[in-house]
Amino acid sequence: MIKLVIFFTILYSIFIICVNGQFQNSVILDQTSNYNLQWIIFNDTITFQVSINKKAWIGLGWHSQGDDDTDPMANADYNIATFDDNGKGYVWDCYNDPATQPQNDTELKGAEDNIISFSGYQTDQYSIMMFTKKLSTGDVIGDRILVDGPVDFIWAHGEDNSFAYHGEGNAGRITVNLSTGTTKSGPDYVNWHASLMLVAFGLLMPFSIFSARFLKVFHWWWPLHYVFNGLASICALVGFIIAIVMLDGLDFSTLHSIFGIITLSLVLVSILFGALSHFLWKPTRVGTPIFPDMFHWFVGRCTFALSIAAIITGMVLHQVPNAVIIVFSGVIGLYFGVIIFIEVYKKVYPNHVDFTHGGATGYTQGIVNHD
After folding, report:
1. Across the strands, what pairs with 145?
2. 3-state SS of 23-44?
3. What are phi and psi of 223, to 5 degrees?
4. Measured distance CA(129)–CA(127) in Å, rounded
5. Residue 309 buriedness (CB in 10 A; 0-12 / 13-18 / 19+)
6. pTM, full prediction
7. What is the chain's alpha carbon radius of gyration, rounded to the nearest angstrom?
8. Residues 6+ apart with CB under 8 A from 135
9. Closest C-alpha among 143, 175, 183, 171 to residue 56
10. Which residue in 70, 83, 209, 290 could disulfide with 122, CB within 3.0 to 4.6 Å?
11. pLDDT in tens, 25-66
12. Distance CA 73, CA 172 (A)
């Protein structure tokens, strides 16, 4: 069944190319050789076509998002077309180790050839290759995930068909947005985006929620909650702006981006309800009103839950090591475990510590009873 779906996907892509006479997007990466990169995305697959105005081998590769290694070829997913004496091409699925030249994925332990289909041909003055792969092959050793957005590409071609060092001026590195077809050679701010979001939702927001839930016995719970929540919101907003700049606008192509957009929207709603709760509070009120207080609580908890989903899907998307994802998930699990423990403790020993809005007197009375 899977093979049948892949077959019809490729068939449809070929049909679209034939009918339109062109791919979805086309960019010239090198004027000298007229290195022309074209592509079309259909469902979870992408078909690339590369052509150059010379008789030589062709290479196209890309990095994981956020990979800011100064060595362009280090840890890159690389695809190389070589040609025989009759002009027939073969496309190889390769990986580039910093210490060696590109090698076939099949030579790496745990990696595999994930090119679904390929073709290539060559004349005395023209070389072309075309291949189809999944955007995410699942091969974390030999492949790098492609996204329908900015991708850090490396390109190269040889002086002739002998696969060897490409030579000066025959290679480059550039960011291409697979969604819009635009290019840029500026810095990649993925690491800044990830760091700000991790601080906002993995560090500051949990402290903010904890202070509002369990530290109301102290008069300083409110400024603590206010400061942590404010800093978390600022970090989240700056991180979101960085993402928009990198993606040239809002992006809904991945679960990570969808979770992120919803999370930031809820942050703004939570701030609004929190402000209303503060300014509408009266010392004479009896009980906690559903609006805006309970709305603020509910939206805040939903925001935190979705932010964790956004962080984890972002880690998976950018192929962060599994150990990091597991440790982060464990820390979040520990946080929830502490929350559950305190809630259960309050139910089992309600007179030991007074967690109501009774101030320091209530806390002192709880300690006296406990002793």
Report:
1. none
2. CCEEEEEECCCCEEEEEEEECC
3. -60, -35
4. 7
5. middle
6. 0.58
7. 27
8. 41, 44, 45, 46, 145, 146, 147, 148
9. 171
10. 83
11. 888 888 888 899 999 988 889 999 999 989 999 999 998 766
12. 10
